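Priority: medium. Attachment 1 of 2:
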């Protein structure tokens, strides 16, 4: 069968940047950094997704200041010293024909925890004895995320302004490190999301009271990043379309209003996640159907009239292709399925008959696989190594 026109593999231009396809590696914290610094581990980790055909390799949450780390293993971009190693990573990603993107984040009241596989509980004095002391955590209010977790310090207005500046400085460094796109982490109950939701933000000043007040911090961060980020480079914003905190919380109507304001402030794409106000959304392993968050991307895209990214249990080619073709979102972010198969885009292209000739693979593998396909055909096997019916 000849190659077909695939929506998933079509390019998309935003500002001065052309995304080679619609497939983005979802941000996934690795807990492998030391003092916020990236290493060869990250080079190989992110590099493999570029080799695998991801049009955009988006990093995990990268903290804009040390106390914005979730765990002691989070990446950071609070110092110019952190630029050169990230530059090596973006250079490698570019050399494979992919774009490099970075998620800028502040963990807020969900900071200073154990790694997910250690239970995600709060760091304690016991952890201090093995060199992982907890650090003071901050939020819009003093409401903690749950029993046993530290009480956050409620940021003063001056302190809020300082954090806003940290986002801008990190954006400047992200540009110097060669990133093509920034995603602002406004989801999952971390600092920006905790300002948005009335379930956590009970402030009685300009950063609270009503929805406009609760959105102020997100919009100031966006403006500060835009002021420090080239006008020809795209900006994404990840939102928890619904905060998952129950009645009275932030909902999808709020997200539509926020998206409209973000768009005006220079955000190009809203990445539509959900939940995570208290615990990790993915840790809870609720019985969710494939593509469970796609309706949020669809709703926000068409109500706010701007591009969106869908994420969450997007597993195979036909599913991803349909999301783009049916105009439910403009991008798909692939998380755990990418962990399972870092070459997911190449394999999906095969599945969709969008790249029969292995041309998108690096020649070092693609040339051989194409040759093998002919040999396999002669003995009744398809190019992936599966026996034909
Ligand atoms: C190990 C792991 C780490 C994650 N870290 C982040 C993160 O740093 N920032 C973020 O916005 N979401 C994070 N997420 C959520 C993912 O980006 C994604 O939204 C979620 O896993 C659902 O997509 P999936 O079903 O394709 O995995 C993480 C998820 C996993 C599994």
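Attachment 2 of 2:
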């Amino acid at each position: 069968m000849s190659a077909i026109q695939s929506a998933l593999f079509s390019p998309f231009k935003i500002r001065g940047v052309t995304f080679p396809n619609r497939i983005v590696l979802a941000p996934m914290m690795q807990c492998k950094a030391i003092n916020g610094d990236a290493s060869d581990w990250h080079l190989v980790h992110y590099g493999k997704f570029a080799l695998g055909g991801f049009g955009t390799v988006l990093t995990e949450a990268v903290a804009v200041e040390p106390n914005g780390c979730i765990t002691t293993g989070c990446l950071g971009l609070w110092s110019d010293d952190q630029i050169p190693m990230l530059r090596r990573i973006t250079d490698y990603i570019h050399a494979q024909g992919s774009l490099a993107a970075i998620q800028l984040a502040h963990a807020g009241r969900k900071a200073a925890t154990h790694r997910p596989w250690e239970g995600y509980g709060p760091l304690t004095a016991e952890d201090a004895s093995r060199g992982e002391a907890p650090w003071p955590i901050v939020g819009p209010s003093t409401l903690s995320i749950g029993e046993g977790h530290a009480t956050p310090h409620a940021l003063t207005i001056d302190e809020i302004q300082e954090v806003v500046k940290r986002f801008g400085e990190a954006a400047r460094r992200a540009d110097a490190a060669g990133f093509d796109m920034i995603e602002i982490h406004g989801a999952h109950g971390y600092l920006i999301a905790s300002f948005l939701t009335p379930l956590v933000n009970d402030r009685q000043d300009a950063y609270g009271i009503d929805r406009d007040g609760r959105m102020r911090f997100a919009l100031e961060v966006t403006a500060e990043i835009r002021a420090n980020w080239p006008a020809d480079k795209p900006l994404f914003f990840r939102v928890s379309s619904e905060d998952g905190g129950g009645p009275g919380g932030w909902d999808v109507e709020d997200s539509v209003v926020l998206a409209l304001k973000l768009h005006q402030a220079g955000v190009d794409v809203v990445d539509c996640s959900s939940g995570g106000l208290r615990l990790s959304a993915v840790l809870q392993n609720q019985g969710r159907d494939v593509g469970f968050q796609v309706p949020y991307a669809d709703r926000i895209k068409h109500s706010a009239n701007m591009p969106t990214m869908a994420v969450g249990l997007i597993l195979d080619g036909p599913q991803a292709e349909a999301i783009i073709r049916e105009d439910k979102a403009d991008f798909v972010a692939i998380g755990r399925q990418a962990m399972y198969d870092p070459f997911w885009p190449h394999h999906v292209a095969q599945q969709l008959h969008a790249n029969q000739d292995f041309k998108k693979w690096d020649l070092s593998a693609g040339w051989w696989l194409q040759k093998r396909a002919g040999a396999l055909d002669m003995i009744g096997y398809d190019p992936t190594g599966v026996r034909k019916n």
